[in-house]
Write a structure and sequence with these properties.
With 385 residues, the chain is an alpha+beta fold. The protein folds into two domains: 9-179 and 293-379, Zn peptidases (Aminopeptidase); 181-290, Alpha-Beta Plaits (2-Layer Sandwich). 31% of the residues lie in helices and 25% in strands. It has helices at 9-19, 29-41, 51-55, 109-128, 148-151, 206-216, 257-277, 300-312, 326-332, 356-371; strands at residues 45-48, 62-66, 74-77, 92-93, 98-100, 135-139, 162-168, 174-179, 181-190, 220-223, 226-235, 245-254, 281-290, 293-294, 317-320, 336-341, 353-355.
Length: 385
């Protein structure tokens, strides 16, 4: 099916309007209201859940449904929140099609790019009159806070078992089929305060115990698909007092959930050992923010994505990522998903940028996915790289 090219101006205007709305994590109210209006113009039934009350935000996750005449439903998703600094974002379109911020904020392509592409793809399908699959939409809040919004979503509303989450850096055509468990941890070492000059022998140096432990922890990429990082270490009250307390925070990421748990046991044991060695106590806690998943390369979701790329002449590359997304939570609820690139680059920095030509390419690709109805699932070949 060939789609009429409506021009990039509308896509640019949608993206520009989205980025002009402040939507920090837990503060997505204005963007949610704007998005409701745009979806209703497209004939989408909308529903906002009560996630905001649960997680302390001013807005819930936004669901949408657009009936279709053929095939199983497809779930499209892009999150509504942006990282800081985001207040007063302004998108600037260069002559070569590259879009940047003014330089003092993030651009917000993460994830305004995904939202803009979804809206444009639905508009094009509506205008073309092409047969489409039933479309389910989920625009979560607080994705940047370890997927808090999608963690509290009401999955009984979602019937689709196939999801495409527009939330990946890289050229359009790339997709992530696997993502890690993300485990955050906090370790408090409790020692004993004493004057550092008059009675150092009476103190138990909490920072010293923490430092010895940190020196023993493997950090960085330990092996492919397994990383550990100590992010902060803080303690003490004054330079002349033996520090009685020290707090260490860090994280473990692993494409294997069991691998994350095994490394955590090692980290925990090291801190307890070093604390006990000097008479201190280690209070330890962890939080599994996201759980690892892997969507099989021979799955229908991957095969449909590869087919759509081939039809659009887009180079396709499927790989794992060490970043989490709402798809981690979708997979826990039996939804088989891919996280696909939608022209976001240098995210989480004021250097963030995207490309209008890539946004256009992604809109055409998503249009293919929406209309990619196959009566015989086995007819979709399993391509090889």
């Amino acid at each position: 099916m060939e789609f009429e090219i409506t021009g990039k101006e509308r896509l640019w205007e949608t993206f520009r309007s989205l980025t002009a709305i402040d939507s920090p994590s837990l503060g997505e109210r204005r963007l949610c209201d704007w998005l409701k209006d745009r979806l209703r113009e497209l004939g989408v039934d909308c529903y906002e859940d009560g996630a905001g009350d649960i997680i302390g935000g001013n807005c819930g996750n936004l669901y949408g449904f657009l009936p279709g005449g053929a095939g199983d439903p497809i779930l499209l998703s892009a999150h509504m929140d942006t990282v800081e600094p985001s207040s007063g974002k302004k998108a600037i379109l260069r002559e070569d099609g590259v879009i940047t911020s003014a330089g003092d904020t993030v651009l917000g392509a993460d994830d305004a790019a995904g939202i803009a592409v979804i809206l444009e793809a639905i508009r094009r399908i509506n205008e073309s009159g092409a047969p489409r699959r039933p479309i389910e939409l989920l625009f979560p809040v607080a994705e940047e806070v370890f997927g808090l919004g999608s963690e509290t979503a009401d999955y009984s509303r979602i019937k689709a078992k196939e999801a495409y989450v527009l939330d990946l850096s890289g050229p359009v055509g790339e997709a992530a089929n696997a993502a890690p468990t993300l485990m955050a941890f906090t370790i408090d070492i409790h020692g004993k305060a004493a004057h550092a000059g008059f009675a150092p022998q009476d103190g138990i140096h909490a920072i010293a115990a923490a430092a010895r432990a940190v020196a023993r922890i493997p950090m960085g990429e330990i092996k492919p698909g397994l990383c550990c990082n100590i992010g902060t270490i803080a303690g003490g009250r004054a330079r002349n007092i033996i520090p009685e307390n020290c707090r260490v925070t860090g994280e473990i990421r692993s494409l294997s959930h069991n691998g994350a748990l095994l490394l955590w046991e090692e980290v925990k044991a090291v801190f307890k050992e070093e604390a006990a060695a000097i008479g201190a106590v280690a209070a330890i806690k962890k939080d599994v923010a996201l759980s690892a998943y892997e969507t099989p390369l021979n799955s229908l979701t991957v095969r449909r994505f590869r087919k759509a790329c081939a039809e659009e002449g887009v180079a396709c590359a499927i790989h794992s990522t060490m970043g989490g997304s709402d798809n981690n939570n979708f997979e826990l609820h039996g939804i088989e998903g891919l996280v696909i690139a939608c022209s976001m680059n240098d995210v989480h920095s004021v250097r963030e940028y995207c490309d209008l030509n890539e946004l256009e390419k992604c809109a055409r690709l998503v249009s293919r996915l929406i209309t990619g109805v196959d009566q015989d699932e086995d007819s979709i070949a399993v391509p090889t790289d």
